[in-house]
Write a structure and sequence with these properties.
Blueprint (H helix, E strand, L loop, with lengths): L5 E14 L6 E15 L2 E6 L11 E4 H7 E3 L1 H27 L3 H14 L4 H14 L2 H12 L10 H13 L3 H14 L4 H14 L2 H14 L4 H34 L7 H10 L1
């Protein structure tokens, strides 16, 4: 059985268009190169090559008929330009990942930046760079990387699943809670039935103290997968914590009238009231 996506290589697309009118009318031909993958027995996607000869930008799905009638295989171009460029890009990303794993975030940043010189939209390099900035708590640069990732549906594809999870956990552990919410919200928009994303969103909401939203996402995760053990455990923990908090609040509320009757509050002067108001 074939495994998908299957890399078919580089194909060219020749298109002509009319320019000018009347006596100045002429035809202009444009030749573009595309990275082609088979995603199913009769389905393909194409992605344009950038100036560095690597696929970059939006993928477009095409039929087998469109591929056979409109595109021409370019094996020499693929071997001469694209394969070496992709190999170099992969090495830079791998070196960045190794440096990040060893705790050398400065060298990891350099390697990921080198990778992005081949393709500034590369998902793996941007995830790695985002984790570097999360660790370094460089909020401005982190937000730029977040914007790049959130703007790419491919960043949330199954093939980037492991990196997607690692980056999300890094955001939460480094207390970038608002960025985490933006990140997981985008993931949910693309796949609302992913129980793991809802579970991770629940973790973030718990850290933010948003218990009702935490419960909401845990219940969605369990509705999708009732056998999700971690979600069951976390739900029980949150409900227990909320139950204790509610009981404590009720006890405090019940005791308050007696305390007030026993010791009426002394009137505050203007200065004391102002100070308390500022503290709130």
């Amino acid at each position: 059985m074939a495994e998908y996506p299957e890399i078919l290589g580089v194909y060219s697309l020749r298109q002509s268009s009319d320019i000018g009118t009347g006596t100045t009318a002429s035809k202009r031909e444009q030749l573009t190169y595309w990275y082609v993958r088979r995603t199913a027995p009769d389905k393909y996607d194409v992605q344009p090559l950038n100036a560095s000869h690597v696929p970059s930008g939006l993928r477009k799905e095409i039929s087998e008929l469109e591929l056979l009638t409109g595109y021409t295989p370019e094996p020499t171009y693929y071997r001469t330009f694209t394969v070496p460029a992709l190999d170099s890009l992969a090495r830079k990303v791998a070196q960045g990942e190794a440096m990040l794993a060893s705790g050398n975030v400065d060298e990891a940043e350099r390697q990921f930046m080198k990778a992005l010189m081949f393709d500034d939209a590369n998902v793996q390099a941007n995830y790695g760079l985002g984790e570097v900035y999360s660790e370094k708590k460089d909020f401005d640069k982190l937000k730029k990387v977040m914007k790049t990732l959130i703007g790419q549906d491919a960043a949330f594809d199954q093939e980037h699943r492991e990196r997607f999870n690692t980056f999300g956990i890094s955001l939460r552990k480094n207390k970038h809670y608002d960025d985490s919410v933006i990140y997981y919200t985008r993931a949910i928009e693309l796949n609302a039935g992913d129980e793991h994303v809802h579970f991770n969103m629940a973790r973030v909401m718990f850290e933010k103290g948003e218990m009702e939203q935490c419960l909401q996402h845990l219940n969605i995760a369990l509705a999708v997968n009732p056998e999700f053990v971690e979600a069951k455990k976390f739900l029980a923990f949150v409900e227990k914590k909320m139950g204790k908090a509610a009981a404590k609040a009720e006890a405090t509320e019940a005791a308050q009238p007696e305390a007030e009757a026993a010791a009426p509050e002394e009137p505050k002067d203007e200065r004391e009231a102002k100070t308390e108001g500022e503290a709130k």
